[in-house]
Amino acid sequence: TACTTQTQTQIDRDPKQPGAMAGEKGLVLLDFWVSPFGQRVRIALAEKGLPYEYAEEDLMAGKSDRLLRANPVHKKIPVLLHDGRPVNESLIILQYLEDAFPDAPALLPSDPYARAQARFWADYVDKKVYDCGSRLWKLKGEPQAQARAEMLDILKTLDGALGDKPFFGGDKFGFVDAAFAPFTAWFHSYERYGEFSLPEVAPKIAAWAKRCGERESVAKSLYSPDKVYDFIGLLKKKYGIE
After folding, report:
1. Average pLDDT of span 61-72
2. How many distinct structural domains can be found in the chain?
3. How far is CA 3 from CA 29, 63, 105, 230, in A?
């Protein structure tokens, strides 16, 4: 279960560091418990063995001044504060961790072409999965049927990209795995709303999801599929979706 300890650090701007927060030291993650984008950062931090402070943002109640100051452009989580300096957008945070902590275990391979491929598939996941999954539970009728067909195509494409490898990074859990693993907790909801079976549509992804769930970094960062399904139910009520 992910930690949700609220931090009380002062968030005044540091005049010596543009964009930095005064009084911040080390790594602080501004996050929301069920966010797959925040969870990919938690997984990466765990894989790299980097200690950090977790700061839960109650997004259902509104966005804190701290979040708005740390990410004034998009006003979204996750935000990683490194010695008070904010880094925004989850995949950019993952790449930042690769650069800022070169002595920690790497998620990206050393070969430039392999690195490019990893970034491509992480970007594919980023642009496709959450948006399409959201349309599965938000829409009805023909628009939902289109979202279902698109989701099946996405999963089959990723199934082919994974191939017979244990992980997208090969034998080693890597960048794409960290980016995609949080959505394994959403697969149950996608299956229910989309009325499909993941093992039938993308058997290699289904097996990969089980392998990911056995990793401590993933298991400690994600919540149960049932909790995710219940959270979607809350969102449907909030948005007035029957």
Report:
1. 94
2. 2
3. 11, 19, 23, 19
